[in-house]
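Entry type: protein chain
Record version: 2
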Amino acid sequence: MVSERVRDLLADQPVWDGHNDLAWEAREQVGYDWDRLDISGSTKGRTHTDIPRLRAGGVGAQFWSVYVPTTLPGAEAVVATMEQIDAVHRMVSRNTDQLQLATSAADVEEAWAHGRIASLLGAEGGHSIDGSLGVLRMFCALGVSYMTLTHNDSTSWADSATDLPGGHGGLSGFGREVVREMNKLGMLVDLSHVAVGTMHAALDVSEAPVIFSHSSARAVCDVPRNVPDDVLARLADNGGVCMVTFVPHFVTPEVAEWKAGAEEAAAAEGIRAGDYPRFSAFLARWREQHPAPPTRLDDVVAHVEHVREVAGIEHVGLGGDYDGADGFAPELADVSGYPALLEALAGRGWSDEDLGQLTSRNMLRVMRNAEAVATRMH
């Protein structure tokens, strides 16, 4: 049951979530046929996400991930990412009474004024541009508001958290050029998935606030995908935001250990953990014989509070990664679950001001500041 306090808070400051993989699910399940995956009604049992559940969860702005696997070579990754972008545009155009495309803070607020969910795009992985600043610029022109510098594998210009370092200190010269170009375009630099060296290198270069679209705290759950305290501490000077994810093996140490065992078993069959499609299929089979330990709502609370403690309340947000993982805490089983997290934080003494910064005010500030940097650089 959602309290009147949380209901009122979400009406004023709805959740702005950093990462949702519904577009990839649409590709996998129905080949982007939105007639067969109609999110205007319930898709429960098929996806974590539909419009009724977004409404129930108090979501007012969503970064839709336009993700493709790193196993797609070069130009194929560019084409597949374009198809993802097209899928999100078509999803929004089918549901204009509920969704509104947004590429700026002002667009988000305009969507809210019309009672719609602001729909933004984020490209997950620098491999999607195939080493081309021209492709990066065209993605931006098509509405992509952030790019994650890597996914599970390193690129030739940026090191991933889950791959071997490339010998260029996190970012190569071209990698630094990518960050500068994103600053000029007003695109947010997303540091989820990248190595710690890449995090620091990007923070050294970026004149605009950075984000972690779906990462949690390494001090709470020690996995490479999470953010160490020395990086969290730098967000205060940069102005960026760590959007805490709900993914079980990033928030619950016991689940992280379980997944490490699965990765070891997969490697014995010649399947790399970084090969997302093959490893995901393996993990589904593995889970049947080796059930994962449970993830708890309190585990997510611990990460949100740790990021607030180390980075400051101005630098924490939410990035569930729905439709990109399984086994979420029962209270956070799908996109309708955000109020349960807010209730838990309110019960731990969070003020309405703090909760509003967490849900969306921090991201509104980040977008505005990135836009101001782009204007100044031009």
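Comment: Residues 352-377 form the longest helix (26 residues).
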